Amino acid sequence: MLLALLILPASAAGAKQRPRHLPFGQWVAFNAGLAGTFDAQGLFQFSSQKRVVLRVTDAFCRGDRYRILDHGRRRGITTRVPTDTTCTRLPFASTGPEGWNEPGYSRIRLVLAPGYHRIRIRSLRSPFGASTGFLYIYRLG
Fold first, then answer.
1. If you average pLDDT over residues 40-65, what whole number do you get?
2. Element of type H or E holding 120
3. What does the DSSP 8-state code read for residue 115?
4. What is the pairing mode between strands 52-58 and 131-139?
5. pLDDT tops 90 at residue 25
6. Cα–Cα distance for residue pair 138/43, rounded to 1 Å
7. Radius of gyration of the chain, Cα coordinates, nearest whole angstrom
8. Alpha helix locations (H) across the chain?
9. Among 34, 91, 39, which Cα is nearest to 60's?
């Protein structure tokens, strides 16, 4: 009997991705696709013995929205903002701090309890077909 073996990329085969460590005090980019898809980077993980603030912001073209999940549970949704269909409104954010500090970009601030966290980003609104956003964590107190 001849068996055919089909090798698929991990995402196509449904295999779980290894979580990436999310460092404290650094903005980390993620990429998302169409509405309903998850970020291409997979899970971000970290742990803390203190409460943590997680910031998530959109960048580049305005109008994307994200749902933030922790261990698969919904934690929040970034703010609703008008879509800049021409992608020309200034200032144009290409970094996490720029997106966070410019009110025209979708964002959210979540306070998470001490412990181990597995963060995943899901695109809810993606008027441009793809998007880039940023995550940032820091400890409270």
1. 96
2. strand 115-125
3. E
4. antiparallel
5. yes
6. 18
7. 17
8. 10-13, 96-101
9. 91
